[in-house]
Amino acid sequence: MLYAAAIAADEPSRIGFIVSKGVGNAVVRNLVKRRLREAGAASLREYGTGFAIVVRALPASAAASWDQLLEDYNAALESTMSRLGSRLPRAAVNGSTGTTQEGTQRA
């Protein structure tokens, strides 16, 4: 599940993850979390500023391969962004890369 909200266009995007014990033991939860972080990092390249999302990992994510998890994440992100539509800040719509809080250039 993926929830998103538009924030100020000049603020860096934020991504949070919820991986409950229902997903599996600590090893499995951390694996899912690492995979979701990598998928989130890729989406920050496209939407560097202007949105906040929360990803809630469902128990099925424990058995999903990296490719399936990435595909599901991207599909949920695309669906959520299309639902936000005109409510997205202009910088997020344009795919601005921007800079991090430390001032370094984003990839």
Give a description of the structure.
The protein is 41% helix and 15% strand. With 107 residues, the chain is α+β, with helices and mostly antiparallel strands. It has a single domain (2-93), classed as Ribosomal Protein S5, domain 2. Helix 1 crosses helix 2 (66-84).
End-to-end separation in angstroms reads 26 Å
Taking all Cα atoms into account, the compactness measure Rg is: 14 Å
β-strand number: 3
Task: Write the CATH fold name.
Answer: Ribosomal Protein S5, domain 2
User: Strand-residue fraction?
Assistant: 5-15%
- Name the average pLDDT: 81
Order of helices and strands: EEHEHH
Largest sheet: 3 strands, mixed
List the topology elements.
Layout lengths: L1 E5 L7 E5 L7 H21 L4 E6 L9 H19 L5 H4 L14
Parallel strand pairs: 2-3
Antiparallel strand pairs: 1-3
Helix pairs in contact: 1-2
What keywords describe this structure?
3-stranded mixed sheet, 41% helix, alpha+beta, Ribosomal Protein S5, domain 2, 3 helices
